[in-house]
Write a structure and sequence with these properties.
- By secondary structure, the protein is of the alpha/beta class.
- The chain has 16 helices and 15 strands.
- A seven-stranded mixed beta sheet has the order 2-8-7-6-5-3-4, with helices on both faces. Strands 9-10-15-12 form a four-stranded antiparallel beta sheet. The protein has a two-stranded parallel sheet with strand order 1-11.
- α1 runs antiparallel to α10.
- Bound molecules: pyridoxal-5'-phosphate.
- The site of pyridoxal-5'-phosphate (PLP) has 13 residues, from α4.
Length: about 400
């Protein structure tokens, strides 16, 4: 059976070039980048080269790149490293749990958070961010691309608002990395987090841009690694893999790959939306999709339960995700779709299709063939659908 993976926003496979770049650093060049002997120097040089690549990727100085364990750590570092008791924090209600759960903890430290809600399109209005600012606001954190809808947030405008007000600005760019052009100067941020495994690099490694002079406390203390900004022996193979993935991502943005990806996504989306009782999540008042990452579409299916469709599609060889997360056995509707104003039923009946940049025409045709079959089958069994018909 042809298997099609359409869950790139959950994770991506290594590309062969990334694997090859990492290979020598597991067994041959295994040194500790802090050791002064030859083995250490080899590792240190590899980390330096990777830092230069990441500086090109971010458009910053190499000294402004801090390697860490991924998006969760970057998000937590931005929040716990910048905010102090008495400060006020602004973020949005559609962030990843790495931000939302960290924000919950702030309450115990006498730090209040304002969660700005999106418009029905999934876009955050910069005016709402401006309105939320108080004299004690110290940090704003907004994601670049939403993981469930792919909607791209107006980070440049928010960066300007933060700069005018003298507030630190962090961007969770985990889902934007490799999909949109990066330029931390243009974004106007002080901090930005990315994760390798969302862009064909290895899991458990990431990087953060920390603008020079930003007074950030490290989350992890110990040795003097990463200019004392992140203690712990450097994950050299991971760092090399992240840089290799970033290099390939820069090519993909230049060589038309991302353009082609958007066309494939649009083809898939148009095909699925031909089914009755379906619709797109993340639509502007003019009926057009909100600006979004090239690889993502999020679609609701009336009279269906998203999890059942995920399972039915899995049995037919297609891996996708619902827009929902499973908490203690109960399926909760997606907080992102609910914040956009969907009711619980429709939020539960939504699926996210997130394409790899290596997606083929055969993958698209496969999904376009099995989705209608699965939807028809499940609707025929659904008591809700039966009631609607009879
Ligand atoms: C928007 C966003 N932020 C943060 C993370 C967490 O990244 P990591 O898996 O590297 O900890 C994810 C992962 O799903 C994400 O989608």
């Amino acid at each position: 059976m042809h298997r099609t993976y359409m869950d790139a926003n959950a994770t991506t496979p290594l590309l062969p070039e990334v694997m090859e770049a990492m290979r020598p650093y597991w067994m041959e060049h295994f040194g500790n980048a802090s050791s002064i002997h030859r083995h250490g120097q080899q590792a240190h040089k590899a980390v330096d080269r990777a830092r230069e690549t990441m500086a090109r990727f971010f458009n910053c100085r190499p000294a402004e790149v801090v390697f860490n364990s991924g998006g969760t750590e970057g998000d937590n570092t931005a929040i716990f490293g910048i905010l102090h008791p008495g400060d006020h924090f602004i973020t949005t209600s559609i962030e990843h749990s790495a931000i939302l759960e960290a924000a919950k903890r702030l309450a115990h430290r006498n730090i209040e958070t304002t969660f700005v809600a999106p418009q029905p399109s999934g876009l955050i209005d910069p005016v709402d961010i401006r309105r939320a600012i108080r004299p004690e606001t110290r940090l704003i954190s907004v994601m670049l691309a939403n993981n469930e809808t792919g909607v791209l947030q107006p980070v440049e405008e928010i960066g300007k608002i933060a700069a005018e007000a003298g507030i630190f600005f962090h961007i969770d760019a985990v889902q934007g990395a490799g999909k949109v052009d990066f330029d931390v100067r243009r974004f106007g941020c002080h901090l930005l987090s990315i994760s390798a495994h969302k862009m064909h690099g290895p899991k458990g490694i990431g990087a953060m841009f920390v603008r020079r002079g930003t007074p950030i406390e490290p989350l992890l203390v110990g040795g003097s690694h990463e200019r004392r900004q992140r203690a712990g022996t450097e994950n050299v193979p991971g760092i090399v893999g992240l840089a290799a993935a970033a290099e390939l991502a820069m090519h993909s943005l230049d060589d038309g790959t991302i353009h082609r990806l958007a066309a494939m996504r649009d083809h898939l989306e148009a095909g699925i939306l031909q089914l009755p009782g379906t619709g797109l999540n993340g639509v502007l008042p003019n009926g057009k999709p909100a600006p979004r990452a090239a690889n993502t579409t999020n679609i609701w299916f009336d009279q269906l339960e998203g999890e059942s469709l995920v399972i039915a599609l899995d049995l037919k060889g297609v891996s996708v995700s619902g827009g929902s997360a499973c908490h203690s056995g109960a399926t909760e509707p997606s907080h992102v779709l609910m914040a956009m104003g969907l009711d619980k039923t429709r939020a539960r009946a939504s699926l996210r299709f997130s394409l790899l940049k290596t997606v083929t025409e055969a993958d698209i045709e496969h999904v376009l063939q099995v989705v209608p079959q699965a939807v028809e089958h499940l609707r025929a069994l659904s008591p809700v659908a039966a009631e609607a018909v009879g």
